Amino acid sequence: MIDLLLCFDDESVLAEALARAIGCPLQVIERHRFPDGESKLKLPAVLPARVALLRGLQQPNDKLAELMIVAPAARELGARTLTLVCPYLAYMRQDMAFSPGEAVSQRHLGAALASWFDSVVTIDPHLHRVATMDEVLPGKRGLALSAAALLGDWAARHAQQPILLGPDDEAAQWVHAAAAAHRLEHGTCVKRRSGDREVAVTLADMDFSGREVVLIDDVASTGRTLVAAAEALLRRGARSVDVAVTHALFVGDACQQLAAAGVRHVWSSDSVAHVSNVVSVVPLLAAALRTPPTT
Ligand code: R5P
Q1: Residue 96: CB atoms within 10 Å
Q2: CA of 53: how far to CAs of 13, 29, 95, 269, in Å?
Q3: Rounded to an integer, what is the distance from CA 81 to the centroid of its chain?
Q4: Distance, CA 121 to ligand 1 centroid (Å)?
Q5: CA distances to 74, 120, 142, 203 from 234, in Å
Q6: What is the Cα–Cα distance from 224 to 201, expressed in whole angstroms?
Q7: Ligand 1 center to residue 220 CA distance, Å?
Q8: Who lines ligand 1 at CB under 6 A?
Q9: What is residue 293's predicted lDDT score, i.e. its pLDDT?
Q10: Of 53, 90, 56, 92, whose CA–CA distance to 72 is shortest?
């Protein structure tokens, strides 16, 4: 259990729901943004022993600078154990140097978080070449929860006998988890990305004609992965294409592009607040915080 949940004002809705679910007090960290972009942060003057901080890392760079300050400040103010509850954990996709000289952001961000927090609880992190969150956080405890089963259940109840499809082989883990409870037909495609918004998807060798298909993925950013898959599915005769993702980043014109591609519904978890949120990760996070990982 934890004694106090901290959050920032822009995530107070999710934080209030989580604090209610675990029956613990919530305090909002006060933040002043100086004209030059620096942040002044104010925590409660005295903190209890077991503190958790809710901070999602969508649009991560400024937030990381604030975490770098909040974590040691919390310890100075009395926190003995510090858990980061990070519904969306950024920088997980850069998990190898794809060309010489590229920083392996996953490794370096993991090391930084491990130096600030005792444990990190997150949802559907993009773990592909690394198997567990413990490996991401050297010497500390990481816990990866998944919203995939919730999205699979939603899809089963809102589409007719859908096929669940991952746009790339990295999505296999989420598609399997989403399909399991209702024993839905499922598969994965092959993706080739040549730029931020340039994506080609080769569909799985399955019969999609006349079928309702739900695309399942961990995260939608520009939406171009889902657009490419949806267009290919409709060309192959799918009756409808819906989209269900854990993390609804949907940057820029992503939603308009999905609509233009013929996507019927866009569904997501509330790990990132978005108009498409239909399932809540609060019960998952609450269960994890009641029995936090120990070092
Ligand atoms: C990467 O493999 C992820 O699982 C997503 O498929 C990807 O990040 C989506 O990015 P975008 O929406 O920009 O195509």
Answers
A1: 11
A2: 14, 10, 25, 20
A3: 24
A4: 21
A5: 52, 40, 40, 11
A6: 10
A7: 5
A8: 93, 126, 167-168, 170-171, 199, 217-225
A9: 53
A10: 53
Cα(268) to ligand 1 centroid in Å equals 14
Q: Which ranges in the chain belong to alpha helices (H)?
A: 12-22, 60-76, 105-116, 133-136, 148-158, 172-180, 224-235, 254-260, 282-290
Tell whether pTM > 0.85.
yes
Collapse the DSSP code of 105 into the 3-class scheme (helix H, G, I; strand E, B; otherwise coil) and give the result.
helix
Close Cβ partners of 81 (under 8 Å, ≥ 6 residues apart): 49, 50, 51, 118, 119
Atom of ligand 1 nearest to the CA of 250: 12
Amino acid 1: pLDDT: 87
Rounded CA separation 80/271 (Å): 27
- Nearest-atom number in ligand 1 for the CA of 171 is 4
Instruction: Give per-residue pLDDT as tens, 164-178.
Output: 999 999 999 999 999
17 Cα to the center of ligand 1, angstroms: 28
Helix 105-116 and helix 60-76, axial crossing angle in degrees, nearest 10: 20
Which residue's CA lies nearest to atom 14 of ligand 1? 225
Measured in Å, residue 141 CA sits from the centre of ligand 1 at 26
Rg value, the chain, Cα: 20
Cβ contact 58:88 at 8 Å: yes
Asked whether the predicted pLDDT for residue 285 surpasses 80, the reply is yes
70-94 pLDDT, tens digit per residue, is 999 999 999 999 999 999 999 999 9
Q: Please state the length of the chain.
A: 295
